[in-house]
Amino acid sequence: MFGGRRRSLRREDDRRCFNLVDRYHRRLMLLIVLLMVLSIADGVLTLLLLENGMYEMNPVMAYALRLGPSAFLTGKYLLTSFGVACLVVFSNSHLFGFRLRVKKLLPLMIVLYAIVIAWDTYLALLV
């Protein structure tokens, strides 16, 4: 339970089914931190856009927004944290039985967040 040494799956049979590892690579931590920073940046930019006449289309986040800006940012952070934690736990598993590993989704999520932030920035410059 404490001080595990398993960082990767060695056997091919292990790689085909659901497995957990004890330790994760440092690169994964960097991706997690970057994704969380981008999530908070997106939340702050969203609040800026909302002050300038835009509206939130996500019903869950719109509800959190009605509770106030701090509830909105906290909700965004917690939902993103939960999603990232799930991606980390299942990082060595294959996505729905395909050859694509779950850990390949983190860089994709970072790219998607970067696109969203670029779009938010563009909209903020227009208003």
Termini gap: 53 Å
Shape: elongated
Domains, number: 1
Cα-based radius of gyration, to the nearest Å = 18 Å
Question: In oligomeric terms, what are we looking at?
Answer: single chain
Question: What's the total number of strands?
Answer: 0
Strand content: under 5%
Q: H/E series, N to C?
A: HHHHH
The helix fraction, in percent, is 55-70%
Mean of pLDDT: 83
If helices are DSSP runs of H or I spanning 4 or more residues, what is the number of helices? 5
User: Structural class, please?
Assistant: mainly alpha
How can the largest sheet be summarized? none
Unreliable stretches covering 5 or more consecutive residues: none
Question: Summary?
Answer:
By secondary structure, the protein is mainly α. The protein has helices at 12-16, 26-51, 59-66, 69-89, 105-126. It has one domain (24-126).
Characteristic key phrases:
single chain, mainly alpha, elongated
Tell me what you see in this structure.
The chain has 127 residues and is mostly helical. The protein has one domain. It is 65% helix and 0% strand. It is elongated and about 45 Å long. The mean pLDDT is 83.
What layout of secondary structure does this protein have?
Blueprint (H helix, E strand, L loop, with lengths): L11 H5 L9 H26 L7 H8 L2 H21 L15 H22 L1
Helix pairs in contact: 2-4, 2-5, 3-4
